């Protein structure tokens, strides 16, 4: 069996990280190639991951047509039998060329609980008529889209996996609780709501520091909001930091205010670092955050509830520590890379 994992790029992101993990895990059992649509940006941490795990990676170059031809040649030369696509461009190119090349099984990938209108009909066509199956990383998206014309018989849900690490509990610095968010600077992440909740906390006299790490189109807007809301003295913005694991471990609380998610990799990282999580109840966040046990879930845009949850955690160190321990154990039991690998192997073994 020869497996090709196909991803758009290797900049920082959840889909990108999962493609690397899948490639590493599957190569324990099969011959695996990770093919990347563009080499524009490769995150340093991902480059290290590739080297450390001896992954076989092929970057496609040149015009769109040239890259499609390169992709076809890889399939033919390596006698690829199975393709795992991760995002829309991969579903399209990997699906069509895979079909034309006679690849035995082609798996599409959908990694959000919603699909934009501009992409919906193409994704549905590819799911129903090109891919043999589509792997969703979230149950919420599978439930919604199966009611909107996606063939439910071709849907498989496999939650993301993560390398479980032994964690070290973080402590306050100068008496201030550190709240952390790692998310791209996009409207989907609703950073304004997070900052509004923090403004409320400041007005209540809570002592905290907020660190937000990411990159994207809203960087300037976010910096403006921080100033307008009077949070310059409490907030630090880090652009594409290469020490994310350390930033999680240095923190006390993780905050996510997304409007939509699939299965959040950043929340998984937070649980892996032993952090309690305050998050909006979107996508499959409910599978990661168990209300009152390892964090709190709120409604979208609910500034007051977010502020209340954060304040409870700031004021109760024991609650933070206990929630962090329970969150870590939950992650270890349900979302390890071994569980992740086993589910993919079951698919491959079933198709043999």
Task: List the defining traits of the structure above.
45% helix; Rossmann fold; six-stranded parallel β-sheet; 2 domains; 352 residues
Topology:
Elements: E1 2-7, H1 14-26, E2 31-36, H2 44-52, E3 57-59, H3 64-78, E4 82-85, H4 88-101, E5 105-110, H5 117-130, E6 133-136, H6 139-146, E7 155-157, E8 177-182, H7 191-203, E9 208-214, H8 219-228, E10 235-239, H9 244-249, E11 253-256, H10 265-272, E12 277-280, H11 285-288, E13 295-298, H12 303-315, H13 317-334, H14 337-351
If you had to describe this structure to a student in words, what would you say it looks like?
There is one protein chain. This protein has 352 residues and is of the alpha/beta class. It has two domains: 2-161 and 336-351, Glycogen Phosphorylase B (Rossmann fold), CATH 3.40.50; 177-334, Glycogen Phosphorylase B (Rossmann fold, 3-Layer(aba) Sandwich), CATH 3.40.50.2000. The protein is built from 14 helices and 13 strands. The chain has helices at 14-26, 44-52, 64-78, 88-101, 117-130, 139-146, 191-203, 219-228, 244-249, 265-272, 285-288, 303-315, 317-334, 337-351; strands spanning 2-7, 31-36, 57-59, 82-85, 105-110, 133-136, 155-157, 177-182, 208-214, 235-239, 253-256, 277-280, 295-298. The strands form two sheets. The protein has a seven-stranded parallel sheet with strand order 3-2-1-4-5-6-7, with helices on both faces. α3 (64-78) crosses α4 (88-101), α4 (88-101) packs parallel to α5 and α7 packs across α12. It is elongated. 45% of the residues are buried. The mean pLDDT is 93.
